[in-house]
Amino acid sequence: MVTMQELIEEIDKCIDCHTCTLSCPIYAYTQKEIDAPYYRLQIARKIFNREKISSDEFQSIYNCPKCEKCQVTCPSEIKIVKVIGKAREELFNQGYELLAGHQGLRDGILQRKNSVKGDPERLLEYLPENFEFDETASTLYYAGCLPGYFMKEIANSSVQILKKIGIPFKVIKDEICCGSPLVDLGDVASAKKFFEENLEIFKAHGVKELIVSCSGCYRCFTKFYPEVLGKSIKVRHIVDVIADALKAGKIQFKKLSEKVIYHDPCHLSREFGKYDAPREILKKAAELVEFLNNRQAADCCGADSAVRAGFKELSVQVALKRVDQAVGRADSLVTSCPFCTFNLNYARRKNNRNIEIQYLTTFLLKVLE
Ligand code: SF4
Ligand code: SF4
Hints:
By secondary structure, this protein is an alpha/beta fold. The chain folds into 3 domains: 4-93, Fumarate Reductase Iron-sulfur Protein, Chain B, domain 2; 100-243, Rossmann fold, CATH 3.40.50; 251-365, Up-down Bundle (Glutathione S-transferase Yfyf (Class Pi), Chain A, domain 2). The protein has 18 helices and 7 strands. It has helices spanning 4-12, 25-30, 37-48, 55-62, 69-73, 80-93, 100-112, 145-150, 152-165, 180-185, 188-204, 215-229, 238-247, 276-285, 307-310, 312-326, 338-350, 360-365, and strands spanning 139-142, 209-212, 234-237, 259-263, 287-289, 332-335, 356-359. The chain has a 4-stranded parallel beta sheet, with helices on both faces. A 3-stranded parallel beta sheet has the order 1-2-3. Helix 9 packs parallel to helix 13, helix 13 (238-247) crosses helix 14 and helix 16 crosses helix 17 (338-350). One iron/sulfur cluster is lined by residues 14-20, 37-38, 41, 74-76, 78, 80.
């Protein structure tokens, strides 16, 4: 558990070099100093000292998708994202009101136990017809809210690929949200209840390991559960599962002549260093091309850490910038996060950009041998 004093000491490491400013995708769009990472740290200092903050300062703490790009450029190696996350938690605990979009997101999760207001009775409709899974398996395919209820093609293609690989796994109809958006809103007490409930559900079903499609779920089980609860469950992202299966010769793809560009999702790449696995997979299935800024230097899609729910226009404009970096370089853009897929595709569609945008398994299903 990190203390306020430790957080303030972290902020004190700032040498005002402003190197972080140019890396921030939100600052790049708003061009407001208040949105520069070093400025956000100073707002956080006020919050930790229980000083009143303005509405613009409040928004600056909440409009960061926690992409971590500032952290990798900061010469003082300040944990900027950790400070921003704790500032949100402190604001929530001090009784600041959430923005309307964030309040709606929180209410939806607390009422329906998923983040997209899906009908829990309909979760398993993503399964292909007559799909058979292994009731006795200790591995669970955990779809997550967006693939489970809204972007069903992601969950559908994921289970088909897992089946092809030959991994024994099951799915459950009482799956609930991992709790990640609640942490991002600062409501860690509610998140903790979801964490406890999830672990109880897994135990009741004899689940020892999860396979997830969502980089947000991956981050939550890997990082938030141990931080908040002191325990978690083994979790693998489907990208790693497919890359391992490819190496072991358990799955093959036919190679297309089309050019595919890979977008690194922040919560999988910068945060967990998963740069190679998706590229190894895509090289087998298409001609892989790269963004000029890729891997650690990749730009964020602008959606995550509840930014899409609270600041839609900002989020879509950040996504459009990323889409435009890909247009003309490839026939399709592939990524391994449902949120990135959704937001990039939304920006593309609304602005008539000529490129296909797909989640990794949706793309792979078409080239599966
Ligand atoms: S995490 Fe990303 S969006 Fe947030 S302050 Fe740093 S660079 Fe900006
Ligand atoms: S790069 Fe780091 S040290 Fe420099 S201004 Fe930004 S937060 Fe401060």
